[in-house]
Design a protein that fits this description.
By secondary structure, this protein is mainly alpha-helical. The chain folds into two domains: 58-245, Lysozyme; 252-303. It is 49% helix and 6% strand. The chain has helices at 2-29, 66-80, 83-106, 113-121, 141-146, 161-179, 182-191, 193-203, 215-232, 264-270, 275-281, and strands spanning 36-37, 43-44, 55-56, 59-60, 252-257, 298-303. The strands form three sheets. Strands 1-2 form a two-stranded antiparallel ribbon. A hairpin with a 5-residue loop joins β1 (36-37) and β2. α3 (83-106) packs across α6 (161-179). It is globular. The protein starts with a helix and ends in a 10-residue tail after the last strand. Residues 1-33 have low confidence and may be disordered.
């Protein structure tokens, strides 16, 4: 009996010690996590602030509708608290937005479509969907050909940011001529023109915000809206990126060719770089060589003298 009592006392003592240790660990560790530490030591996460007014593609977003506000809130929460991904977007944005936005502006396409490219690709130059859509603008092979992009075993201009962005402008403007609403254009980029057209007629509405569609398309425009808000106001949503933390702009120079290239590893070496960097700058080159039997003119980017050492100063 004494042994049993002794063991019980020891067991009780261990439980007390373990519980005390757990609470001590909890209170000391939690304040180190991101968020606002309360006096109790617990970290409290807070809802994001929704704007009182918002325009998208120069069109008013009807935030007075509860369903619209809740849809936007969902995507703001997802992207505000997906810290690693959103931080990376913020670091990469100047490098790629500096190419995309001027092309949109020159073709009188709303610059908010730059966030559509972000939503489509995550700023991944080699983005490839399970369905076979490729690049920042996620063109399918057939559509790419319709809009003047070369796609074959050696060259795939869906990966060419400048050319794909120009093709996207042409596609988006054609969609606008059909729908008369840039928001519907964005929705149709995800779901397809025919689908959106059928649903508008079937449901007897004229606005994306009144349209019942599947979850992917119902979230799509709001995800773009959320990215726009966060990328344009990062501190408001808890992101503090210092200037020297932004990935530097690429210092490049252009080499024009109108003949074949036997080996791009040799080509890279001749221009003071390596195959990895050459393909990073020109992901549209899909082979180690270029036949170019028709003598087509191509512009290939190679590093400038400060490519690996330039800063944002």
């Amino acid at each position: 009996m004494k042994k049993i009592i002794g063991r019980s006392i020891v067991s009780l003592g261990l439980i007390v010690v373990l519980l005390a240790g757990y609470h001590l660990l909890e209170s000391s560790a939690l304040p180190e996590q991101e968020g606002k530490a309360e006096p109790s030591g617990r970290v409290m996460y807070h809802a994001v602030e929704l704007p009182s007014k918002l325009k998208f593609m120069d069109e008013e977003v009807p935030l007075e509708y509860n369903d619209v506000r809740e849809s936007l809130d969902r995507e703001l929460l997802v992207n505000s608290y997906f810290h690693s991904q959103t931080l990376r977007f913020l670091k990469l944005a100047p490098r790629f937005m500096s190419i995309i936005v001027p092309i949109l502006e020159a073709d009188t396409v709303p610059t908010d479509f730059a966030y559509l490219a972000l939503a489509e690709s995550g700023f991944d130059q080699r983005a490839l969907s399970p369905a076979g859509a490729v690049g920042f603008w996620q063109f399918m092979k057939g559509t790419a050909g319709d809009y003047g992009l070369e796609v074959n075993g050696e060259v795939d201009e869906r990966y060419h940011l400048e050319k794909a962005t120009q093709a996207a402008c042409d596609y988006l403007k054609e969609s606008y001529r059909k729908f008369g609403s840039w928001t519907l254009v964005a929705a149709s980029y995800n779901a397809g023109r025919s689908f959106i057209d059928r649903q508008l007629e079937r449901q007897k509405v004229s606005s994306y915000y009144d349209l019942l569609v599947g979850e992917e398309t119902s979230r799509y425009v709001f995800r773009i809206l959320a990215l726009k808000l966060i990328m344009e106001n990062p501190k408001q949503y808890g992101f503090d990126i210092k200037k020297d933390e932004i990935y530097p702009m690429w210092d490049v120079k252009n080499i024009t060719i109108n003949g074949p290239v036997k080996d791009f590893a040799d080509f890279a070496a001749e221009h003071g770089t390596n195959y990895k960097i050459l393909k990073t700058l020109n992901p549209w080159l899909r082979e180690t060589f270029l036949t170019n039997s028709r003598g087509k003119t191509y512009v290939i980017k190679v590093p400038g003298k400060n490519f690996r050492t330039n800063t944002n100063d």
